[in-house]
Structures
1.
Amino acid sequence: MTKKNIVSGIIAVAAVLLCMGMIFFFSSQDASESTMMSDRFAFLLRWPFAVKILRKCAHFSEFALLGFLTALAVKNFEKKKFIPAAFAISAAYAATDELHQLFVEGRACRFFDFGVDCSGALAGIAFAALMIYLFSRLRGGKKDDGKC
């Protein structure tokens, strides 16, 4: 592994940990704080009747970001099987996030939310894989040479 790959791997892992911290922070908000934030955002969008949809979109989006970042981080260390590894990490974090919410006042552990989280992670991973493929083609390679 080159020095450049080590540095990019460290930065990628730090981005994943930062994203996980952000998700943990949002999941740590009690029900009233979380509802207030969703209501404010819905008001800004002039879409107050769709708070539940916004909340599910937030779950999907934060885990799409996590999946994307995790795929890029894992790609630095595992060249061929980075997609299943990134999904396993993201899904495990989604499970722990839902369990964490059991201990937050007014929040709950929901299997549906776990599914939304995993769907978001999968979308983010698919986007990362597409970007990796396209960048490798732009560099002139016929297939990914593993130098991300």
Note: Helices lie at 3-28, 31-44, 51-75, 82-101, 111-138.
2.
Amino acid sequence: MFEIKRYTPDLADEWNAFVAQSKNGTFLFDRGYMDYHADRFHDHSLIIYRRGKCYALLPGCVDGDTFYSHKGLTYGGLVMSDKTTAADVVQIFKLLNVMLKEEGIKRVVYKPVPWIYHRQPSEEDLYAIVEICGATMSRGLSSAVSREHHSEWYRIRECGVRHASHMGLTVEESEDYRAFWEVLSKNLLERHGLSPVHTVEEIELLHQRFPKLIRLMVVKENTEVVGGTVLYISGRVVHSQYIAASPRGKKIHALDYLFHVILPKALQEHAFFDFGISTEKHGTYLNEGLIYQKEGFGGRGICYDWYEWNL
């Protein structure tokens, strides 16, 4: 009944069309997004056909003897349509395990799409990988604001907004990623000794490919960028991919003012605003200062899970 094929570039249109109508896919699975870093990862994405028609997708890459779904993405997992059934998903994972093992793969690392991104319930894969594959789980913790129920902002965040409102700040959409990247890069280097996952050239390229879905919102004091966030916009979720403020921006509460402006607008059209994970070291360390800030804006816990099993 099922046939599993390796993805090749000539199948990009078929792949992208399926992602667009899937019940749990986002634009991160579009090949225009996935392939920006094709030189860093050995792509091993798979297309599952049922009676000759595309039935499911599995974004993936291979590193050594491990299959990842996908190492270069925030989340991955089986991309399904509203016609995908639980029994079929169980069968698909049985076949996938056999296929990957025959290719010399010994381990699978699987990162499903968090449920808030689903357009319909889409957790058939979670059942299959635990019951059929014997997967073990680790968890990262994100913070999201729900349109249906708003948690109150912490007083410290509200005070920050009142202070910032007297500073003559402006919040606007910007195309100047380089100005924000300077703020972001300095922030990450000083606080964590890290660089952004994307270079500024990469984020500019991705914005050009997805101008309505990747957007930069900045806070300015006069003409100076003192803070901002890069937003990834999916059907149900606005995700803050990067958040940063300059030393001056922190002093004048630029981020409090930023989210005071953009959160209500985002939740008018989308069910959730996702601030991103606040855990480190494979989920074993909770950055309490970071999550306290996000909880101060009304964010509450959403798990980003990943599973592993041996073949």
Note: DSSP finds ten helices and 17 strands in the chain.
3.
Amino acid sequence: MKSLVSVIKFCEKFANTGLSGKSLEKFLEVLLRVVNPRAKVIEKNLRIVFPESSEQWRKNMRVKAYENLAWTVTEILALQKNPEQAFDWVKRIDGENYLDELLTHNHGAVMLTAHFGNWELLGSWYAQNAKKHAHKMCAIYQEIHDPDFHKYVQELRKRNKISLLPKEVSSLEFARILRTGSHVAILNDVSWSRKLILPFFGKDCTVSPGAAVLSMLADVPIVPICLQRNAPFEHVVKIYEPFFVAKDKNLTKEERIKNAVLECNRALERMILERPDLWFWLHNRWK
């Protein structure tokens, strides 16, 4: 899909915090409204999470989801000119005490987040923050089917100071990396290779046990974190209370992992319910 990559690279020229950036966002937003991608998937997802919602409310939420996606692309492209802009765009940190604990102590952490707000900006901001405190932040990724687009996204993330780890790396190797003090980020609102069937917003779907398994193997906390956009190029980092996989001798290893995965799901549910307009509703989460 070289043509798509060429179009995105052309858009990079117009991506900034000024008038041309606003024009690019508006163009992308109008394009999304016209094409209406994944409209049926968005409708299905919204009905699952908000069964009492009206048709008009769901339509408005779909428009907001497209707006969030348009601003996310614009901000990511603008960030390429200078990744340190991420520090200027984050206006507040909720849960800063948890951040201080993470960055001032020499232990690893599993950073739990989702395709929410501008998740790429969050990764860049956190990776640069961690580096200032002699920590390393790594993001686990799975390969995008289109090789040209995959290569472009990987280059983009590297320019944004994000270290990358393929999901094919063994759990034991991930645990070793965590024990060295690295922070490993997982977008946990998609299913990876190993799967459990557990409720998410009250409806069963495939969920990944990865965050729980790595936390248990390395004995490090799971830290829910997200980025909320209050306005274009103005964001709030939200860090929620970290938690560990329970060390209950009365439970089997599988039961401990299952309980921790359910807690991960509850953490993601909380993020999404606070700002449903910022979640990536286009993903077919409940297959």
Note: The chain has eleven helices and nine strands.
4.
Amino acid sequence: MKAEQNKMVGVDYKLTVDGAIADQSRPGQPLEFIFGTGMLLPKFEEAILGKEPGEKVSFTLEPKDGYGEVIADAIVDLPKNIFMVDGKLAEDILFVGSQVPMSDNQGNRMMGIVKEVGEETVKMDFNHPMAGKTLNFEVEVVSVRDVTPEDLQGHCSCGSCGGDHECGDGCHDGCCDHDHCDCH
């Protein structure tokens, strides 16, 4: 059976960014997804289209085909006082590199990365962590099968989440709080 629209596909993969491994599947825990449903980057799926279990492919996605270029307007200085919890500054999350879940005035949830902590402001980057990056993938298709009713229940199958929670937008759009889920 071949990887194609509406098939459950399992892949082992390694993602290298800037010469270092940024993400990879765990041994015995392939990334499983329903092909063609928007769970993964379109160019990722295009690269494995028609592949059968046992077939391997290596490919590179430029930023335009991955998570886009870095958007300067998505890097903002926020008043430090918005990071107050019970009257105290949340210093446990205010360090460079920390990922902080936030929401905008309309209640839209987003993840920001602390870039700089100043006296009065915190510089936050709301770009995807892989924005502006060239993504180098090594992928092996390990399974292809028909989709079952259980597969359509919307449970996460990224392997690192335990597969027992709901993922409304698709696990691999970043709804999991795992680095593992953000790179596809």
Note: The longest helix spans residues 42-48.
